[in-house]
Specification:
Blueprint (H helix, E strand, L loop, with lengths): L19 E5 H15 L5 E2 L9 H9 L5 E3 L2 H9 L4 E7 L3 H10 L4 E6 L2 H14 L3 E6 L13 H11 L4 E7 L11 H24 L6 E4 L5 H5 L6 E2 L29 E12 L2 E4 L14 E2 L5 E6 L4 E5 L11 E5 L3 H5 L4 E6 L2 E7 L8
Parallel strand pairs: 1-16, 2-9, 3-4, 4-5, 5-6, 6-7, 7-8, 8-9
Antiparallel strand pairs: 1-10, 10-11, 10-15, 11-14, 12-15, 13-14, 16-17
């Protein structure tokens, strides 16, 4: 069930009910423009990851700024994007099982839809379904470039799978998925770059091997918010999948830049709005936003604009704050913006973005792919 919005367009920000997911439109728009500008003229395409925002409105805004399409991780996410008007989706994941594969190939009759594989049996199942639906499905091979999650090993294992795809009715070999997810949150700048350099060498060797066998890689896709600048200038990747850059979160803000200092070139635009529901002591307050309002898998949220107030513990419906300055004015009913530790799973807890500008609600955007796990 979609919940009612916690706000109305035009109301002042301090009237928004809580917990609510806030989007600072000025910062959000600057983030979109900043990434588009960073890669302009260097021969790479943007295909931002929609698992971060799960919202066709945002996907279309990204495409209006130059993105060629979006990535998704699930068929249900891809359906939400296509039904919301997004014409080009890469499912940057393995889709296994007859029901999901049938939905995937059916969706490919409505938009350009591609998918990733790392298994010969999965290739055969995709081929059978695509042929039955009368579509020719672009298929990318995911190679393991260091994250040790999905993906065949680079080189000969990828070649064998590419040959199978090229020979399969209903399929077309589309290239490689080479995402070094483990590198995104390596704090040290030099070590983060070294991880991507190692991934680039594995990917380059695989591209060359495939080319020697007449299998050109039209697409080499990967990269994330933490590493996209390295992939962009590598000469290997031609599609970048950064997603969190539009929002940012407390975890990404711990990455170190080339100057050795934490921070990011992108601005924080996503917040969880919360209300002080209890102030039992001078050094303790309790918010109405706990585990059911934000994700803590990457650490506790930060309190925006209040260095002396610390979010220290989350329970189901409560967030406990420590006030390091006992004279801090924070009465019951006060509202705070929290910077989530991890933006993606936090977004998945909400049905609406409350989009604001100049402290007033400007728009309400539905999070259409919320809970899209099938």
């Amino acid at each position: 069930m979609t919940t009612r919005p916690p706000a109305d367009v035009g109301m002042p920000l301090d009237a928004v009910d809580t917990p609510a997911l806030l989007l600072d439109l000025d910062a959000f728009e600057r983030n979109i423009a900043r990434l588009a500008g960073a890669v302009a003229g260097i021969g790479v395409r943007l295909r931002p990851h929609a698992k971060s925002h799960k919202c066709p409105v945002i996907a279309l805004r990204q495409m209006a700024s130059g993105a060629v399409g979006v990535c998704c991780q699930k068929v249900s996410e891809a359906e939400a994007m296509v039904y919301g008007g997004v014409p080009d989706v890469l499912v940057s994941n393995q889709i296994v099982g007859a029901p999901k594969i049938a939905r995937l190939v059916a969706l490919a009759k409505q938009a350009r839809v591609a998918v990733c594989v790392d298994d010969a049996g999965n290739v055969a199942a995709l081929s059978e379904a695509a042929s039955a639906f009368g579509v020719r499905l672009p298929v990318l091979i995911e190679i393991n470039v260091g994250a040790d999650r999905c993906g065949v090993e680079p080189g000969e294992p990828a070649l064998a799978l590419a040959k199978q795809i090229a020979a399969s009715p209903g399929l077309r070999f589309g290239g490689l998925q080479a995402y070094q997810g483990a590198a995104q949150h390596i704090r040290d700048y030099t070590k983060r770059k070294e991880a991507v350099d190692a991934a680039a060498e594995k990917t380059r060797r695989t591209v060359e091997l495939l080319g020697h066998h007449g299998l050109a890689c039209e697409v080499v896709s990967g990269a994330g918010t933490g590493t996209y600048r390295f992939e962009a200038v590598s000469g290997i990747w031609n599609e970048l999948q950064a997603g969190s850059y539009i929002f940012m979160d407390a975890d990404y803000l711990q990455n170190l830049g080339p100057d050795g200092k934490p921070g990011s070139e992108f601005e924080q635009s996503l917040f969880v709005y919360a209300t002080v529901m209890s102030r039992p002591t001078k050094d303790r307050a309790v918010l109405d936003a706990g585990l059911k309002a934000l994700s803590v898998d990457s650490g506790m949220p930060r309190v925006a604009g209040m260095q002396d107030v610390e979010y220290i513990r989350a329970s189901d419906e409560h967030g406990k704050l420590t006030l390091h300055d006992p004279h801090r004015a924070l009465p019951v009913g006060s509202k705070l913006r929290l910077i989530p530790g991890h933006c993606d799973p936090t977004v998945n807890m909400y049905d609406w973005y409350v989009c604001y500008r100049n402290s007033r609600v400007e728009a309400l955007w539905p999070i259409s792919a919320r809970g899209a796990i099938l």
